[in-house]
Request: fold
Amino acid sequence: MEKTVTLAQKYKDYMIALRREFHQNPEASGEEYNTSRRVAEELKVMGLSPNIVCKTGVAVDIEGTGTGKGKTVALRADMDALSVQEINDVPYKSKVDGLMHACGHDGHTASLLGAARILSECRDQFSGVVRLLFQPAEEIAVGAPAMIEAGLLDGVDGTLGIHLWSGVKSGTISVEAGPRMAAANIFKYKIIGKPGHGALPHEGVDAGLAASAIVLNLQSLVSREFTALAPLVITVGRIESGTRWNVIASEATIEGTVRCFDPDIFRQVPDVMWRVIRDTAAAYRCEAEAVDVRAITLPCVNPEATSQFAADVAKKLFGEQAVALFPLQMGGEDYSFMMEKVPDSLIAFVGIGNPEKGSDVPHHAGNFQIDEDALPMSAAFYAQYAIDFLNR
Reply:
């Protein structure tokens, strides 16, 4: 334990430098070519033999030299950035207009590289294999399924995913059992009306008006059609309608997402939404068309025994006070597919929330920031979790 913490602090500056490099050079989901190349370069310097997988992902095994029967544990970090304009004024600000690491994936990648260094120097402390998975395309929820399809979890006995989280106090870590992140879908519907002059609206059929009514009516589903005891969110994040200020919109599209933890409700919501969308459109003399409706993540649920094991690891590393209690979140994670594939899996939230450093703002915001002092905690937890998992 002491060696792990010491090495994590030793490589703190290394991780900060890498995190800032990744932050300055963000890459969109599925286009992480430079990021994966740099990750592979760093792993080769450590004497490891990484492979580029799933086009822009990286996988590498670190084998222990300890005695005993070897198992395999996988440590996962995501690498992609978001279509967000950065408004932070920092020396390492994103160099790519309209693209930013606004969710912490740059920190995930850097801390897993730090964990790789720790594990490479601690091979004699474990037997078996630690598989490092640097995953692409989490933000569009296709990276984890692709890695599973590629066989990278075949024969794996357990997995760990870490998410740096601004809602958790810096210096603490949350590993509670039960639902932690929500199932999520994406939806897109088209509303079809009839064009007309803005001064003569009765001669057209206003798709924009119908779309507006649909957005409002969908919210009644949360408050009136599903139990208040099961959290549910229906968000319309994008509305597009019209071509000119004085023309009646003949078409409109609405796009959004559904989030919840209950699998039965998650399956029911699309049909109930379609009823409201179709019938509201008809009430405004429009037609509705489902363009894209699909699930993109499952719920992330930490098993009780795995959660207790993780809490024990965190307490040994950082002390009793480091284990935080943090409410379940409506955010979605495609790591959920890895958790489904390998039941002995855990998602941990490592705190980066520090008001003095401005790192307590919401994820996906243009002023999102990381408390870089959390990187050693993330790296140490990655490494020690793997060592203890293989030795237990």
Q: What stands out?
A: The mean pLDDT is 97.
